[in-house]
Amino acid sequence: MTRWDEPCCARRRDGQPCGAPAIPGGFVCRRHGGSAPNVKIAAGLRLRQEAEIQALIKWNQTRSFDDLCKVTEAQRAVADYQAKLQHLAKLRRLVKLQRLAAEQGAQDAPRD
Ligand SMILES: [Zn+2]
């Protein structure tokens, strides 16, 4: 099983490695981008993908109905996080478009 206890991969201003624990499922600590929504969701997605793989391995060994149910639950959780990432990307595009439209409006407005 993959472990997520690697330290943050960012470097401090003096060039030394940050060394703080990375967020679960992520590669950076909270101070180095780990608290950004997209980073948090991507980390959550990695954890759920890992859980899906573990559930599949377990089901492959037991072939029990309960373990098959756990596989479908894990797959649903992965799909949920993928949808969250897509939703966030869509929101970011909208904000960018609004900003561009506002800039365009400011340029077109008559000056006096
Ligand atoms: Zn860090």
Write the layout of secondary structure elements.
Blueprint: H1 37-62, H2 65-108
The structure holds zinc ion (ZN).
Zinc ion is lined by residues 8, 10, 18, 20, 28-29, 31-32.
Architecture overview:
This protein is mainly α. Helix content is 62%, strand content 0%. It is built from 2 helices and no strands. The chain starts with 36 loop residues before the first helix and ends with a helix. The model has no long low-confidence stretch (mean pLDDT 93). The structure holds zinc ion. Zinc ion is lined by residues 8, 10, 18, 20, 28-29, 31-32.
Shape: flat
Structural Rg: 21 Å
* Share of β-strand residues: under 5%
Distance between the termini: 66 Å
Q: What are the distinct ligands in this entry? A: zinc ion
Order of helices and strands: HH
| Main beta-sheet strand count, sense and barrel state | none
User: At the first level of CATH, what is the class of the largest domain?
Assistant: Mainly Alpha
| Second-tier CATH architecture of the largest domain | Orthogonal Bundle
CATH topology of the largest domain: Helix Hairpins
Helix-residue proportion = 55-70%
Number of strands: 0
Helical segment count:
2
Q: Low-confidence runs (pLDDT<50, min 5 residues)?
A: none
Q: What would you call the structural class?
A: mainly alpha
What's the overall average pLDDT, rounded?
Answer: 93
Q: How many domains comprise the coordinates?
A: 2
